[in-house]
Amino acid sequence: MPFSHHITIQFKKRLLLALASLLASYLCFWLFPSVFQTLNAKVVDRLFIYRSESDYFKPDYNDTIVHIDLNDSSLKALKTYYLNRSHYARVIRNLSAMGVSAQLIDFIFAAPSSEPDDRALREATEDAGSVYYGMAFELNEADNIPTPRFRSDADKQYLDATAWQIKVIDGSKSLYVGTNPLITFPAFSEAAKGTGFISIKPDPDGVFRRMPLLIRYGNGFYPSFPFRALCDYLQVPPEKIVLNPGKSIVLKDAVKPYDDAGHDIVIPVDRSGNMIINFIGPWGSMKHYSFAKVFETTEETAAFDVWEEELSNKIALISDVSTGSSDVGPVPTDRHYPLSGIHSNIIHTILTESFLKEPALALMLGLELVLMGLIIISSLYFATLRFSLSAVGIAALFSGTAVSFFLFSNLILNIVRPLMMIFFSMVSILVISAIENAKLFADTEKAREIAERDLEIGRQIQAGFFPEKLPAISGWELAAHFQAARQVAGDFYDVFAVDGNSKIAVIVADICDKGVGAALFMALTRSLVRAFSLQRFEENSGSGENQTPDETEAALKSVVSFTNDYLAETHSEANMFATMFFGILEPETGKLTYINAGHEKPVVFSSKEVKEYLNPTGPAVGAYPELDFKTRTIRLDPGDFVFAYTDGVVDAKNEAGEFFTKDRLVSLLTLPSDATSAELLLEKVKTCLYGHMEGAEQFDDVTMVLVHRNIDNTGG
Description:
Layout: H1 3-31, H2 33-53, E1 65-70, H3 72-78, H4 85-97, E2 102-105, H5 115-128, E3 131-140, H6 153-162, E4 167-168, E5 177-182, H7 186-191, E6 194-197, E7 210-212, E8 214-217, E9 220-223, H8 225-233, E10 241-244, E11 248-254, E12 263-268, E13 274-276, E14 287-290, H9 291-296, H10 304-311, E15 315-320, E16 328-331, E17 334-338, H11 340-352, H12 361-381, H13 384-409, H14 416-463, E18 476-483, E19 491-498, E20 503-511, H15 515-537, H16 549-570, E21 578-586, E22 591-597, E23 603-605, E24 610-613, E25 632-635, E26 641-645, H17 647-650, H18 662-670, H19 678-693, E27 702-709
Parallel strand pairs: 1-14, 1-15, 2-3, 2-15, 3-6, 4-10
Antiparallel strand pairs: 3-5, 7-13, 8-9, 10-11, 11-12, 16-17, 18-27, 19-20, 20-21, 21-22, 22-25, 23-24, 23-26, 26-27
């Protein structure tokens, strides 16, 4: 199979797996939103906490918004745990005198109490002209609206009269519908500057992270408590509010007290009109003042001027945060958070225009497709371990990107779903890779068994090319050793009689390559040499006369030349050649006529010293046609040895990677010892050589042939 086709198939497989993983991650969020959306929300909550605790990333606090807390210490200072409405009236009057721009009373005074206390609160509210009261609705989905219920006609008349008419783009049916209202006692509501609902729905895990700014009521809309006060603060009447559900609420020409000119404030909202609240930190992140101290600080007190400077032009939220207050719930930055803090953070988010945004589905999907592409590419180019590490790296890169977007751009990416897609993709690709590898291993194992069987047959066939036994020659000893590095080899040796058994051919050769190709080339070379030898050296044997020295040299040269030309011309594309030592020994005279075709130099030595090396007389066989091979003749004296070998002997390595070396071989051959016969000397070399190689892998064939003329051989 072509490599490009294989890559295409692998790409398609991994693409399908990645797409299935992406689909699985979306299905998890769709089928089990309470599990996976909650998990994602909690991950984002950790970013809120980290940001609020970081000196560098902590949001700047706009101290226009302050809290007036009715806490335990305030109740103790006031010496009562049961405040009447006159207490609130006095606080309202004092705050008004201090120049507070807006007072948000986070209580619902649903029914009248004592007439004097109610009159005091109503008059204080009316005189201040900056007081806002809360009220509550049941928030219903558009397709599940119960029959409206009102406590009184006065409640309905008040709500109908104070509902907003705003501009709507693309319909408003997706907004919550407010029913079953619980409003502040009409006497106070009518005296106030406005009212707004404090109703809020938590996320499935009970955490408050967002709040609707507007809901539908009757034929109009009703604002939330903080949104109602802030629109007045920014001088934005209802007719300058534009609602586009799922996109934004626009406050046209909003004017901040510290700005010279107005501008549009675009608030991102979801289909239900919810704004994500950008909590700046835990409860203590904003300024808090004691209800009791505000109560005690009238215009006649010495500290009034300090309080006036501190609270002038502020937006104050007055709420009960004493022990036992039910107005507490979890938010991203705090597990027990007074819900008046939600209103202050909504105001702060809009006033500072530090809106949190969630990317559109198409943008998020595009980002997930990029991540999917990176996973696919890494799976194609990396093996299992590196692919796993790269997948973890991609997940870490995306996580870091998501954190950066939150910290620097107020953009909330879905973190869990892409990580799920990466995890599903990684696992599925690893599983399919394991299956493919198991199948490949099974196929490879089967192929290996077949190859081993074939190689074993090849080894047996190749073994037939070596002499079963060496010729026995009076006055001479012959010994040989061969050890293949693999099942089949590229080395060979041959020893056989020629010229009517009057001469002995001694051949040691090494093919330039290894493996099956070298073994086949070896078989061919050995067959050519022996066939040409038997032909050329036997041409004169029919006459009953042995060849003359000149004829021996000519025959030797022609055998090597014929072999060279055949290999070079017929098998040139194989790009193989052989180094070869080919000697013709005349036992009677001790003459050795040889051609060394680029081979290792055989050593001629006696028991005392190296007498000479048989240097090359021509190039390697089979490299090019019509090469010139020269012959040379020496005489071996009684006691002389000729040791011919291949480079696998001197290049043999030990565990440390050290070579056996030619110097070590020569010193071993000439070292005085009891090994006076060819067999004993060859065994000595083998023992030393394989001792050197112990523990290391044999990487080349080892071939050695030793010729010895006995000392008592005095023929010729």
